[in-house]
Specification:
The protein is an alpha+beta fold. It has two helices and six strands, in the order E-E-E-E-H-E-E-H. The strands form three sheets. It has a two-stranded antiparallel ribbon.
Length: 100
């Protein structure tokens, strides 16, 4: 991908006749690397894209069952991420434990 950089202006606000600021500074081009996003082809994901490789690895751990489950101490609900369990506890989302 190619992005044009905005023209830089001098701090004084006045330009002199022989200064280099009179040149067209919009001709500067910044090249941004365009790497392909990591994809998952396992677990029926059909090429789901992830923004980072670490997000893909976390997804694969969770789907394969290797990730430790976080359990709510009040209702026994299981979560794949501790942050989800903490939000569950913080917002008092516990439902009554079902008796079988």
């Amino acid at each position: 991908m190619v992005y044009r950089m905005p023209a830089m202006q001098s701090g004084s606000g006045a330009s002199t006749a022989g200064s280099s600021s009179s040149q067209d500074s919009s001709s500067h081009v910044r090249v941004v690397q365009n790497r392909p996003k990591p994809r998952c082809w396992e677990h029926g994901c059909n090429g789901r894209q992830f923004s980072t490789f670490s997000n893909l690895l976390r997804h694969q751990r969770e789907k394969s069952g290797q990730a430790a489950k976080a359990t709510c101490p009040n209702c026994g609900a299981e979560f794949t991420r501790t942050t989800a369990r903490n939000g569950h506890l913080l917002h008092d989302k516990c439902k009554q434990r079902r008796s079988t």
